[in-house]
Amino acid sequence: MKSPETVNEYIVMHPEDVQGILRKIRSTIREAAPDAEEVISYKIPTYRLNGGNLVHFGAYKDHIGFFPTSSGRRNFGKELSKYQGGIGTIQFPLDEPIPYALIRKIVLFRVKENHGTKVRSTRTKKASKNTSPKKRVITRK
User: Fold this and answer.
1) What are phi and psi of 103, to 5 degrees?
2) What does pTM read for this prediction?
């Protein structure tokens, strides 16, 4: 199968019921990030803003993969706790409703983060440790 060159080509490669989900995710992202550039990267739809990746999404056998980077995943941990995923990935099962409103919130967060706007994190910061190396002096007699 040929790799898609556009998001439209990517969407039509999938079954009709999945195409509807992909189109809705696409429109959700575009509404939340109207200035983002739409490209294919890693063979999936990708949205870039100010030269950096904002989010990616893709269709798989049993789920939609949504890739908002690690900060997007981390800052919505409570709302995403019911979904499988990794550090910067989320899996929305195809047999459950897709949380478009949550996708929108995550994209808006990533837009603010991408613009350098200070975004309030839901994580607590660890106390910083002094990382300067200590010299160890060994004397021999």
Assistant:
1) -60, -45
2) 0.80
